[in-house]
Amino acid sequence: MGQLEGKVILITGGARGQGAAEARQCAAAGADVWVTDLLVADGEKVAADIGGHFLEQDVTNESLWNEVIDEIVVTSGSLDGLVNNAGIFKIVPMTQTTLDDYRRITEINQTGVFLGMRAAAKQMVAQQSGSIVNISSIAGLSGAASAFAYGASKWAVRGMTKSAAQELGPSNVRVNSIHPGIIETEMLQQFDVLGPDIRDRLTANIPLGRTGAAEEVSEVVFFLLSDSSRYCTGHEFVVDGGMRA
Ligand code: NAP
After folding, report:
1. What superfamily would CATH give domain 8-239?
2. N or C: which end of the chain has fewer CB within 10 A?
């Protein structure tokens, strides 16, 4: 019997990378997992592999959020966990950031998380239980000179997490943020613009001496979705090999 037996969990951006690792781990622990993403073929494959469900979803679409939650609740009966994982990353410093870039990154990484929390909270408050896990970044803990808009969006996720935790705590709904460091997913390709030696330079700043695996983040997501973390809310959980120690 897994630690998430009977829990219904929604993971956005779950077609690949960290979201897919989270989906696999939650399903293996007995959860009924719903994966959403823009990437339909990859998302359907993850869902088929784990015996879960896939829905195409753009997290910036407000009305679609309500449709997704409604379909999950009608089909699976509840919503016990939401992982706001979908996100985009772009290397561009503040002085070169266009308004379009700023708006696009904010819309997905920040507004998408707000819309997800709000839609899920309606159901979770009615149930008087739930756990929301928002994926921020170490860029949400300190300055990010080379990724200005991304850093701003991830600081917003950290702040929204605390406000939502305060608001929803009396309804037994927990909200926490996770702050990954350098994790081996397709997102890391964005660093290539900083030169061929960028990976060595990044790794040199990690006390554990290596980048992280998606599964090493999903272990912490798993903990926050499970009842083992039932007294944790409103806080940051850093998974960075010591980079921001
Ligand atoms: P990833 O492999 O690029 O996965 C992100 C997923 O989100 C992709 O499938 C992407 O689909 C999807 N997505 C993007 N925009 C979306 C939208 N509007 N609606 C729905 N889905 C959307 O990257 P990852 O590393 O797993 O990232 C997961 C989360 O961790 C992100 O929030 C990221 O910011 C955060 N994070 C990553 C790292 C790292 O080093 N990898 C470090 C810190 C934090 P498309 O390909 O279609 O865009």
Report:
1. NAD(P)-binding Rossmann-like Domain (3.40.50.720)
2. N
Q: Please spell the DSSP secondary structure of 198-216, one letter per residue.
A: HHHHHHHT-TTSSPBPHHH
Give the active site residue among 150, 155, 222, 237.
Answer: 150
Position 119, amino acid:
A
Ligand 1, pocket residues at CB < 6 Å: 12-13, 15-19, 37-39, 57-60, 85-89, 108, 135, 137, 180, 182-183, 185-188
Q: Is 157 exposed, middle or buried (0-12, 13-18, 19+ CB in 10 A)?
A: buried
Strand partners, 9: 33, 81
The CA 154 to ligand 1 mean position distance, Å, reads 12
Contact between 29 and 222 under an 8 Å Cβ cutoff? The reply is yes
Mean pLDDT of the chain: 97
Residue 180 bridge partners (DSSP) = 239
Active site residue 231: no
Q: At residue 2, does pLDDT exceed 90? A: no
Residue with tokens 């990484």: 109
Q: Is the pLDDT of residue 227 over 90?
A: yes
Over residues 62-106, the pLDDT tens digits come to: 999 999 999 999 999 999 999 999 999 999 999 999 999 999 999
